[in-house]
């Protein structure tokens, strides 16, 4: 994160959210939303590339970093997280819509926000990385199982296999064991093995272990309900998909139906793993800026 970032606090539903702002005070606001098990520090290689053009705002999501940590599982439902996003957007830019760049569960959360009625007035554009709309994912899976083809079945099985770890996250003792095993060699080593990230680029945040364990509530509160009973979620704002073709957790083909739900959709594929905001920061920053500039 930029060394000159100003830290403030936004309170929503009793949750204190740590918010960080830097960049051009006259620029368009862009809000960066991290996923599991990261904090706002995920964006440390991207923020400097946006600061000339934008007011750059990031925040620690509930349960992570310097923000409050609710203990009840229901506090991690997507509707609550979308409410946090809007609280931050309203606090930092009450009179103008914001651009958004989000990754992993941050992207899942913003998909939820983007489907709400106020999105057209509060979100100017949304760039999503490695975080599916869970309703769209559920609909995609169901459509291929109802009208099966060999390719469709293979794709659903491949995504299921890639997401198998989420099953273990639903079981408290097993989830803790899995996280310990994943991070046994340290976070930089895990990112190198899982996502091809150069360990020298990784800054391990001091709350990583607690953030990872607290964040399993995201999986428990949302995945089964939304994948088994997905809603029709139409999106009216401009959406930009940055698809990591080498992402072993979120397979790229599940986005093939996104155009059915998003009126204004742009897609860019890059040869990157899941943590592309670290490994491919230059590409993420460039593609995000190009997309936003295309809307002017």
From TrEMBL:
InterPro entries associated with the record: AB_hydrolase_1, AB_hydrolase_fold, Epox_hydrolase-like
Annotated coiled-coil segments of the chain: none
Organism listed in the record: Rhodococcoides yunnanense
Any Pfam family matching the protein: Abhydrolase_1
The protein, known as: Alpha/beta fold hydrolase
Record's keyword terms, sorted: Hydrolase
Lineage: Bacteria, Bacillati, Actinomycetota, Actinomycetes, Mycobacteriales
GO molecular function: hydrolase activity
Gene3D superfamilies in the record: alpha/beta hydrolase
SUPFAM superfamilies xref list: alpha/beta-Hydrolases (SSF53474)
């Amino acid at each position: 994160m930029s060394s000159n970032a100003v830290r403030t606090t936004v309170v929503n539903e009793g949750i204190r959210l740590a918010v960080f702002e830097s960049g051009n005070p006259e620029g368009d606001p862009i809000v960066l939303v991290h996923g599991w098990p990261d904090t706002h520090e995920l964006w440390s290689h991207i923020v400097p590339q946006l600061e000339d053009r934008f007011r750059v705002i990031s925040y620690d999501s509930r349960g992570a970093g310097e923000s409050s940590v609710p203990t009840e599982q229901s506090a991690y439902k997507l509707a609550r997280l979308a409410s946090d996003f809007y609280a931050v957007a309203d606090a930092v830019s009450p009179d103008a819509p914001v651009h958004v760049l989000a990754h992993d569960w941050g992207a899942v959360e913003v998909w939820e926000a983007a489907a709400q009625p106020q999105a057209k007035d509060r979100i100017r554009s949304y760039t999503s990385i490695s975080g599916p709309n869970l309703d769209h994912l559920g609909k995609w899976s169901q459509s291929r199982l109802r009208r099966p083809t060999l390719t469709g079945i293979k794709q659903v099985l491949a995504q299921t296999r890639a997401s198998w770890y989420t099953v273990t996250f639903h079981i408290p003792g097993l989830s803790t064991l899995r996280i310990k095993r994943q991070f046994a060699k340290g976070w930089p080593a895990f990112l190198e093995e899982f996502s091809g990230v150069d360990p020298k680029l990784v800054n391990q945040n001091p709350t990583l272990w607690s953030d990872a364990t607290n964040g399993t509530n995201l999986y428990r509160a949302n995945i089964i309900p939304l994948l088994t009973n997905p809603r029709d979620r139409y999106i009216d704002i401009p959406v930009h998909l940055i698809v990591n073709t080498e992402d072993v957790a979120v397979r790229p083909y599940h986005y093939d139906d996104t155009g059915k739900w998003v009126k204004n959709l742009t897609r860019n594929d890059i040869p990157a793993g899941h943590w592309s905001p670290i490994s491919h920061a230059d590409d993420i920053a460039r593609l995000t800026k190009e997309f936003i500039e295309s809307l002017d």
